[in-house]
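A further point concerns the way the authors explain their paired sequence and structure data. Each protein is reduced to its one-letter sequence and a matching series of backbone shape codes. An entry of this sort, consisting of the sequence and the corresponding backbone structure tokens, reads as follows:
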Amino acid sequence: MAKDKKELDDDLLTGGKTLSSDADNKKAEKKKQAAAKKAEKNAAKLAAKKEKLLKEIEAAKAAVAAESDTEKKEKEQQKLKALQSQLAALGSKKAALQMAKRTKKIATSVIAVVVVVALMIYDSPWRVQRVMAYLDP
């Protein structure tokens, strides 16, 4: 009887589930595996893009070195710079996303502070009287 009461208390505390359910553990493990696969796939795509850009950069460098006409050489150098900037941007997308989140958080905080101060000023009867005194001719 005491054991049944203990099980009943455990069921009441946990909502009928055990704290470390096997099904929950399996779901968590599947999520971890799926996230690992996705990260691996993204890393492979990134590596392929980098490799492709590096090959194009080498080809552009060779074209710049082989070109004797100054106009064509400038065009090839512009292409080379564009490829190099693409390569640099490829690795910085994650940092840009993190920066965007941080910027959004800062902007939200600043707006909240401004709103709070404006409400404090508006709510203050003394400030309202001063503003009305300026408006009264």
About this structure: The two ends are 87 Å apart (CA to CA). The chain has a mean pLDDT of 79.
